[in-house]
Design a protein that fits this description.
The chain is mostly helical and about 120 residues long. α1 runs antiparallel to α2.
Length: about 120
């Protein structure tokens, strides 16, 4: 079985999340046992830390999912499209340097081709 890097990153995030939850629960249990009565601060901070861990793990897994989807989409487009035409693959270097509103850019713009059978209808 070929190991995919993104799958391993997802597993690593899950392991770090699990270890973080266990460490956080252990810290809360130790603080509650050492205190007299039931103090609200260790429990509140433990819940706050758990929420932060959930949000961070969710964000990491979402980014990994987006990266996997983008890679699969790129692979699918490569399989469907084959090779790109030369004009699309490598544009001319001067084409992107020239703005659309420069006088030379407007003068070089091609006009509409005249359709056969159509002529001027009226003049002023």
């Amino acid at each position: 079985m070929r190991g995919d890097v993104m799958q391993w990153m997802g597993r690593l995030v899950a392991v770090v999340f699990g270890l973080g939850v266990l460490a956080l629960l252990g810290a809360v249990v130790v603080l509650v046992r050492q205190a007299e009565g039931i103090p609200p601060w260790p429990i509140f901070l433990g819940l706050l830390g758990l929420v932060a861990l959930i949000l961070l793990a969710g964000a990491c897994l979402a980014l990994i999912s987006i990266a996997v989807s983008a890679r699969r989409g790129a692979e699918a487009l490569q399989r469907l499209g084959g090779t790109l035409p030369a004009a699309v693959a490598e544009p001319e270097p001067a084409a992107h340097m020239q703005g659309p509103f420069t006088p030379t850019g407007l003068a070089d713009a091609p006009g509409r081709p005249v359709r056969p059978g159509r002529g001027l209808v009226a003049t002023r």
